[in-house]
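Sequence in, structure out.
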Amino acid sequence: MPLRDPLYHPLFLGRRAAPETPPFEPFPPSGRRPWKGEPRPRRDLEFHVRHYKVTLEIDLQKKELRGRAALTIEAICEGLRDVELAAAELDIAKVSAGARAARHESVGETLRVRLPRPLRAGQRTTIEIAYSTRPRKGFFFVGPTEAEGDRHAAGWSQGQADDTHWWIPCLESTESRATLEMIVTVPQGYRAIGNGRLISRRVSARRKTVTYHWRQDTVHPAYLISLVVGKFVELRDRAGKVPLHGYVPRGSEAKGRDLFRKTPFMIETFSKVFGYPYPYPKYAQSTVVDFTFGGMENTGATTLTVRALQTPEEAIDQTYETLISHELAHQWWGDLVTCRDWSEGWLNEGFATYSEIVFWEAEHGRDEADFARLEQMCSYLVEDYGDYRRPIVETRFRYPSDVFDRHLYEKGACVVHMLRSTLGDSVWRRSLKRYLERHAFSGVETSDLRRACEEESGKNLTWFFDQWLHRGGHPEIKVSREWDADSKSLLLTVEQVQEPDAVTPAVFRIPTVLELAVGNRRLRLPIDIQQRKETIQIALPAQPRYVALDPEHDVMKLMEFPRSDEELLYGMSRSPFALERIRCARELSSHANHAVITALFRTARKDRFWGVRIAALASLGEIGARHPGLVGRIADTAKGQEPRVRRAAAWALGWIGGEDLETDCDHGGEQLQRGGGAPGHRARQA
């Protein structure tokens, strides 16, 4: 069983994980199973594709693509004669190489082409493939349904992780990158949106078609090739010199402008923090129906679910700003630099997920950003304890999609933040700049990031990357302290109690901060925990009234640190850090005297940050389950608060449950119960 840390609570889960997690069950959940995966070494390459020229006609009625793909390949090995491309369920009419007919055969999802003559290493040739397809993956046709009969026929691509070959013959490798031309003919009234610059748009009155010619002059892997076909209204904006294009259904213009309005500020923020300007000639965002994910970061041309288009009323309690910022951040993390293999996918997804925090802090402030980090930590813990534990860099998987999980996204984001706190903000930014500049438009591994960080910091960071990326889990620590009056020293003992195994280290190195209130002074002391159990002696002028380990909660960990009522009340009311105030409020859930209850109600009403108010209400609910008489006061406290705080009050009433909820609430409590409070819950007593 994991150490119980009250900091982590289902009320702190983000929207991605909250619907899957029972709100009244023990948290984090239990039930971990071993990670199952097969060793999957990175594939050998015999050639690169250097350019794709794809010419297609889109038949929306037949749901068919017809045309040809010309692939300029460059041999890596000497004497390349047989070329194997990925191609699934393509009806191939003809294949030529260097303008000469080429023998070919399709086996499974592979197209084998015999070149007329062998290529030397570094030599190029062009393979042209004429084909048609009605794809089941990679490109999706959508249209009217029984429920929505007024929909227009449309289509969109989705290549990640390796599905582009279902509509374009290609080399499915994140390591191999190519430039691109996409020439697409669609019916009049439709748009075709692709990567790169729009070179031309030709109308054929006779055929009643429009042909769009897109060209991308910077290289990218095949999974980022994008095509969106539909009837859209175009919304234009700029971020400095970068033209911005938004595509929405007619009638959704106002929703689209609201959805996209912060994109210029996001680009400005990311360019500044990452130390590298937005790398592509334009940025397009297309909203489509029935999209399989929230969004996809195709190079310079993101695809988004149409559900992100909201009215102002719908947006009160839900924002898609994190989705917009996540997909935009991928233009740096994933598109500009791409994981060389999906085992290194955290370099794409962990960084994009942490970029949500970077934007959130710039736009909404430190407290909001820290709470978003807490949401990410909680989401990761659900998977780590309730499903499986694995290293973030994982080479054992059957399909790349297996590793697109909360270890890759949320824990990856936590690791990026810990790297930032370990290096310090300025060194972290310089490291990102060096990493991006050195590896722009190429594939990367975790060692490339480590090397950039070491060069900028002068530190050996092998330990950091080994424990956080190549091993699994996180520290579980028990902390105690005592005051030695004779030597005027604080003796702080930290013991790591996580159960070591083949994945989890027995000892994590934990550089962090110890914060103390001594008299009227606030002291911050760096400490570096490197042993399974160690005691640190700190000379002080007087006994501290308050001690906090890692008060900014930079380290992903579970912690048990008994502190007095007075300390916790001091921290809850006076800490400048929202997560420390949240921790203090949550630790007070096991304390139930009058002073604690009064302080928690005061915090639930008046703390400047709503996340701390949620924590106070969660603790009041747990106290109220043991001590009757709090229901009415909890309901009253929720009045006039924002939706998430009201939900926390509903959770507290649901946790109390039973007869106390029915008999001990006043009119306000009854209203809250009828308006969304959870039913009485007694499973906690089992």
